Amino acid sequence: MRSRRYKGIDGEGSSYDLSISDLMAALCCVFVIFTIGVTTSLKEKNMAANQYNETKVYIYNEINDAMKDTFKECNATFERETLTLKFSAADAFKDDDSTLKEKFKTNLSKIFPKLIYLLYKSPKRDDIEEIRIEGFTASDSRLGQEEQGDDDYIAGIKLSQDRSKNVLIYCLGTNYLKDIPAEEQDAYREWVRTHISASGYSFSRAYWIYDSNGETRRNKYGIKEMDKAKTRRVEFRIRTNADKVIEKYTTINVEDLLDEGA
Question: 133 near 234, Cβ under 8 Å?
């Protein structure tokens, strides 16, 4: 058996023999530990993905089965992939204004109390992290600023935040407690308050116009062309605890895997 002699670390000239087979055995051990770590992490990641899909599908079916006719009546769309209820801003507000249209108020009065009640009573209630009301505006050079410039974006932030805030305020005033027994109202109110929020995003999540090659179309100034009608919207996004689990497993850290396998 071939071996090489290595000087010891005690400084006394002692030595030990380390054969090639010993080196290979050590490398094999490291590889096995690494493989076990990777396999375990992938299994956990698959379990998290399955949990996310199961939760999402259950909540979607529960809400859509109960409210699809109401959504259609109110010109709202409920997306299965993102658990997002969408309203066009054109149906909700006047241009450059954050005051709710009367028709939109009527639609919210039909939708919000039932939607929030279904979520509260859902078997998946503990998986619900947040119901976030999100406002979005489109770039607008009519206000005197450069289109899609910083001033344009900031103006959109202010407007979209005002809109989402006003939607939230109106929803909380829709008498959503009327069908809740008196002894449950305090707990219900507390759950709603701790799970609902409002945010404005300007045109940070805009919809763009594409050419026949799938490239974003640009105007004569080289600025990307935005689908402004589609970008202007209000959304109710239902976020679950599973979203955080998915984010945890978005990447695999090799050092963490080695630590887990050790």
Answer: yes
Residue 51, token pair as written in the block:
């949990």
Amino acid identity of residue 238, one-letter, is I
The CA distances from residue 8 to 27, 83, 245, in Å, are 21, 64, 48
Tokens of 111: 């939708």
Q: Which of 126, 136, 177, 129 is CA-nearest to residue 160?
A: 136
The token pair that represents 243 in the structure block: 């979203």
Supply the pTM of this predicted model. 0.74
CA–CA–CA angle 115, 116, 118 (5° rounding): 65
- Residue 147 is predicted with a pLDDT of 73
SS (H, E, C) the chain: CCEEEEECCCCCCCEEEEEHHHHHHHHHHHHHHHHHHHHHHHHHHHHHHHHHHHHHHHHHHHHHHHHHHHHHHCCCEEECCCCEEEEEHHHHECCCCCCECHHHHHHHHHHHHHHHHHHHHCCCHHHEEEEEEEEECCCCHHHCCCCCCHHHHHHHHHHHHHHHHHHHHHHHCCCCCCCCCHHHHHHHHHHHHHHEEEEECCCCCCCECECCCCCECECCCCCECECHHHHCEEEEEEEEHHHHHHHHCCCCCHHHHHHHHC
Beta carbons of 89 and 232 less than 8 angstroms apart: yes
What whole-number distance in Å separates Cα of residue 207 and Cα of residue 219? 15
Q: What is the pLDDT of residues 3-50, one digit of tens each?
A: 555 455 555 544 445 567 667 776 777 666 666 655 555 566 566 566
pLDDT, one tens digit per residue, over 146-192 is 677 888 899 999 999 999 999 999 999 998 998 899 999 999 999 99
Instruction: Give pLDDT tens digits for 166-177.
Output: 999 999 999 899
